Automatic annotation (TrEMBL):
Annotated Carrier domain residues: 5-80
InterPro entries, per the entry: ACP-like_sf, PP-bd_ACP
Species per Swiss-Prot/TrEMBL record: Streptomyces sp. R28
Top-level taxon of the source organism: Bacteria
Any Pfam family hit: PP-binding
Descriptive protein name: Acyl carrier protein
SUPFAM superfamilies for the chain: ACP-like
Length: 82
């Protein structure tokens, strides 16, 4: 399993998608979803956007269990390509 790294094009794109889903200008790896105002609708929207962007499969349960943006980025990096 890969670890979170701030650099990299895919990580930057994922961070932008997270910020967009929560309506904030930017996010960082250490940001907690609760602090961003996460709810089931925003997480579902985020899951859909990431699956479409990267053509991957992510389990909604895994997204709900991710506490930080960094944990989500690692999920994306390790996700199964459809």
């Amino acid at each position: 399993m890969s670890e979170f790294q701030e650099d990299g094009a895919r990580t930057a794109e994922t961070l932008r998608e997270v910020a967009k889903a929560f309506g904030v200008p930017e996010v960082k790896g250490e940001d907690h979803f609760a602090q961003l105002g996460a709810n089931s609708v925003s997480l579902l929207r985020l899951m859909s956007a990431l699956q479409e962007k990267y053509d991957i499969t992510i389990d909604l349960v895994d997204i709900f269990q991710a506490r930080t943006v960094a944990e989500l980025v690692v999920l994306v990096e390790n996700a199964t390509v459809r």
